[in-house]
């Protein structure tokens, strides 16, 4: 199996305990054998490798963090490194996994009743039922907390959902979609689990994307969609509950950004050693080494940040501003790193065959989702000043 990551100069990975490190290496080997070889083809075709879901399930890592699911509970550090590894192999597959295990399962774990958790989480941990998370709307992204237009109206033992959602990862094929809607009676945002095939629910694949093309993002329409009361998440009574889920998943996005940085650095380093100009490998040129060290510096600084974030999570003392700062900072540095890697590869950097072009494109989506840099900056700014600058 592989040794420490090429770009892990300070050996942060060695902080993992024996069993957890073995799990990480097993996942790394799977990704290298099954995901990396097909990543570009799936990206070009904008097709999701459905056949791989069963093999992902056999890894036994989906839902490990939740008590209702079997297996030893992982540290935050292992969960982070798993997100890093998946993004290092393919950001699209990392996004698929993060939506299912973090956003969808996380919503049920945090906001569902004990009966609801027992009903849905074990099957989702076996990946027998895939989840999606429907929050963003066509006219509402950053302001969705106050501007949510999707409504929920109670009629007896059912809720009627009306509205639209956009950019819903896994939305075209998910079995369970956590839909957030505003209750017309009290004005509060509530969560509902909508099962695939429910009348009034339609999902249409978003075409012509330039990033995360393998991810099956959907436009979702809810038209008189009736959901039983038993599918209303019992502990989701306001947008504050939604924000609790985003706090944890934003940290996962920061780990993904580090994975993308390390992938870009490794691609650039390998290319620099092999590519010859003026009779010698370009790795021997000072300006090339400068680019490589800049990439490594960004990745190392961000890896240190997310490792500490994982420790704060394990100590149960991490706050919104911790994950917001990591998401904003790491994704900003990620953009720099993929740009430098593309620069180092010159013309070859825009050809998919050399891999870096896919990471450059996918980085744009990672930079934007789970809260833009500006929104996460305002979360941190509010925490450090004690004053809100939100409109």
From TrEMBL:
- BP GO annotations: fatty acid beta-oxidation
Could you tell me which residue ranges the Acyl-CoA dehydrogenase/oxidase N-terminal domain spans?
19-128
Q: Per its UniProt record, what InterPro entries does this chain match? A: ACX4-like, Acyl-CoA_DH_CS, Acyl-CoA_Oxase/DH_mid-dom, Acyl-CoA_Oxase/DH_mid-dom_sf, AcylCo_DH-like_C, AcylCo_DH/oxidase_C, AcylCoA_DH/ox_N, AcylCoA_DH/ox_N_sf
Cite the PANTHER family for this sequence.
Answer: ACYL-COA DEHYDROGENASE, ACYL-COENZYME A OXIDASE
MF terms (GO), sorted A to Z: flavin adenine dinucleotide binding; glutaryl-CoA dehydrogenase activity
The Acyl-CoA dehydrogenase/oxidase C-terminal domain sits at 244-384
Name this polypeptide is given: Glutaryl-CoA dehydrogenase
Cofactor(s) recorded for this entry are: FAD
Q: Which organism is it from?
A: Nonomuraea rubra
All residue ranges annotated as the Acyl-CoA oxidase/dehydrogenase middle domain in the record: 132-224
Q: Which UniProt keywords apply?
A: FAD, Flavoprotein, Oxidoreductase
The similarity annotation says:
Belongs to the acyl-CoA dehydrogenase family.
What Pfam families has UniProt attached to this entry? Acyl-CoA_dh_1, Acyl-CoA_dh_M, Acyl-CoA_dh_N
Which EC class heads this enzyme's classification?
oxidoreductase
């Amino acid at each position: 199996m592989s040794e420490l990551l090429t770009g892990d100069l300070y050996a942060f990975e060695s902080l993992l305990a024996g069993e957890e490190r073995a799990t990480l290496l097993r996942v790394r080997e799977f990704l290298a054998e099954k995901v990396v070889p097909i990543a570009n083809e799936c990206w070009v075709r904008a097709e999701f490798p459905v056949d791989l879901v069963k093999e992902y399930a056999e890894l036994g890592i989906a839902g490990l963090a939740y008590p209702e699911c079997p297996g030893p509970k992982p540290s935050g550090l292992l969960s982070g490194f798993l997100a890093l590894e998946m993004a290092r192999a393919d950001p699209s597959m990392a996004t698929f996994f993060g939506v299912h295990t973090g956003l969808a399962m996380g919503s049920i774990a945090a906001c569902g009743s004990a009966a609801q958790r027992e009903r849905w989480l074990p099957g989702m941990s076996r990946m027998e039922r895939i989840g999606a998370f429907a929050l963003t709307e066509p006219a509402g992204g950053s302001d969705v907390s106050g501007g949510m237009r999707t409504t929920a109206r109670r009629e007896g033992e059912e809720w009627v959902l009306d509205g639209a959602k956009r950019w819903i990862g896994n939305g075209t094929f998910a079995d369970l979609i956590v839909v957030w809607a505003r209750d017309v009676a009290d004005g509060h945002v509530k969560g509902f689990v909508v099962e695939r095939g429910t009348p009034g629910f339609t999902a249409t694949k978003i075409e012509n994307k330039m990033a995360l093309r393998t991810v099956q993002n959907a436009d979702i329409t809810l038209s008189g969609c009736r959901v039983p009361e038993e599918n209303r998440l019992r502990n989701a009574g306001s947008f504050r509950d939604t924000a609790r889920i985003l706090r944890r998943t934003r940290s996962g996005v920061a780990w993904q950004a580090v994975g993308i940085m390390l992938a870009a650095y490794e691609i650039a380093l390998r290319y620099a050693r092999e590519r010859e100009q003026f009779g010698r490998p370009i790795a021997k040129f000072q300006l090339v080494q400068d680019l490589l060290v800049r990439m490594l510096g960004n990745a190392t600084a961000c890896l240190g940040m997310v490792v500490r974030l994982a420790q704060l999570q394990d100590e149960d003392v991490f706050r919104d501003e911790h994950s917001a700062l990591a998401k904003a900072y790491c994704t900003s540095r990620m953009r720099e790193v993929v740009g430098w890697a593309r620069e180092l590869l010159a013309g070859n950097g825009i050809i998919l065959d050399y891999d870096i072009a896919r990471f450059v494109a996918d980085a744009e989506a990672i930079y934007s989702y789970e809260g833009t840099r500006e929104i996460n900056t305002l979360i941190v700014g509010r925490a450090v000043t004690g004053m809100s600058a939100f409109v």
